Each structure stands twice: as structure tokens, then as C-alpha cells.
Amino acid sequence: IAFGCLAYSFVTNDFSVVNVVSNSNSHLPIPYRFAATWGSHEGSLLLLRSQGLLRDAPGRGLIVGALDPQHVRNLYEVREMLDGLACSKAAERACDVARQDGQVFITQGRAAVKSRSIARMIAADMEFHFFLYGLSGNPLVADVCGPHWSYLRRVMGEVLLYDETPGNIWDQHEAILEAVAAGDSVSAGRLAREHIVLASESLTARISSHEDAASGKVAGRGSGADAAKRTTKRR
């Protein structure tokens, strides 16, 4: 439905739609305006490729890429520094806002865990961290982290799909919030960095274990096929 609405907007020159304004004009013949519906997606696909969500497949274009533990590790090393900075500055600049508004994020996060909804758990985690980024008073923190959250959402989603949720993640969040609310910039920064390091270790370990399990299954199927071939030849 959404794609049909977008195509209709291109064909009818509906320039109230930003995508149409950026990728079409009223002088184009109708077939070209309709084709622009697809052409305008190229930039989005290239962005997803640059974020590691898609990869090149010769002869097939782009396909969804496998999760890369090293890429996850790299992202979390950057997050370790940025989250530590954000929480430290939040404690210095907005401890009163943290005291007043922060607890609702903890409550929502714990409720999301109880619901077992993967979408709610990921959304709650993101909202908590972006709340702290906002309190830091430095808009560049969110700007730098923002483009990588699509990949991080996928990582968290796949881990939560197959594994139990880390039981103490919202205990860690609450401890960070308490330090920020208390105006303790040193503790807030340290707790935030420790939280990111633990998350990185947990996520990369689980991704690697999933890869090992998948490799074992493939090898097992191969061994079974080889054995069947040997049995057939003996017969």
C-alpha cells in the first residue's frame, strides 16, 4: 500500500511529498515519473550497505549481510567512549532533569522485558540511551551514534530472538541514571562505559556461538550426505 501511494505521488506530481520533490519534475513523461519510484531508493540501499546491513553479491545486487562480530566490537568501542562522555556531561549539566524524568524510562524498560516483546525491548533500550544523549547537552553525540543504531537494532533483535534477555541490563541502566541524577559525573561515565563493555562482550559472544552452531549444522549435513553416497556406492 505504501509503495502504491508513493508511486501515485510520483505519477500525479504530488510535490508535497519530499521524495517526489527530490527525485522528479513535472516535465518528465509518466513512465519516467513512475520509474523514479524505484530510482529514489538507491541512496537508501547504499546507506544500508555502508552501515554493514547489506553486502554486494556478484550477479545478484545487494543482499542482507551476516552479522559480523568484529564490526559489532568496533561499534561498541566507539559507543563506550561516547556513552561515557554523554553520561558524564549529563550528570554535570542536567541532573535535575534526570531526577524528574528519568525513572519513566526504567519503568518502561522493565515492563518491556516482562512483555517478552523484542520490539518493545529494543525500543526501550534506544529511548533510554537517547534520553541520556539529549541530557549531555552535546547534539553531536546523538548525531554520531544515530546512523549506527540500525545495525545495533538488528544485532539486539537477533540475540533476543534466540537467547534470554540479560537479566541485569535494566539494573545497570538504573545505576547509570542514579549517578546522573546525583550529579556524580565520574561514576556516571564509568558505569556507562562498563555497561557498554559488558553489552559488547555478551553480544559478540552470542553472535559467535550462533555462527559456530550454524557451521556445525552445515558440516553435519555434509557428513550425512557423504556417508549416504558411500553407502550407495557399496551397494
Keywords:
2 strands; 3% strand; 12 helices; single chain; globular; mainly alpha
Structure description:
- The chain has 235 residues and is mostly helical.
- The chain has a two-stranded antiparallel sheet with strand order 1-2.
- The model has no long low-confidence stretch (mean pLDDT 82).
- It is built from twelve helices and two strands, in the order H-H-H-H-E-E-H-H-H-H-H-H-H-H.
- The relative contact order is 0.11.
- Strand 1 (54-57) and strand 2 (61-64) form a beta hairpin.
- The chain starts with a helix and ends with a helix.
- The protein is globular and about 65 Å long.
Low-confidence stretches: none
Helix content bin: over 70%
| Class from helix and strand fractions | mainly alpha
Strands, total number:
2
Radius of gyration: 24 Å
Multimerization status: single chain
Assign an overall shape: globular
Strand content: under 5%
> Biggest sheet, in brief?
2 strands, antiparallel
Total of DSSP H or I helical runs spanning 4+ residues: 12
Give the neighbour order of strands across the main sheet: 1-2
- H/E element string? HHHHEEHHHHHHHH
| Average pLDDT rating | 82
* N→C terminal distance: 57 Å
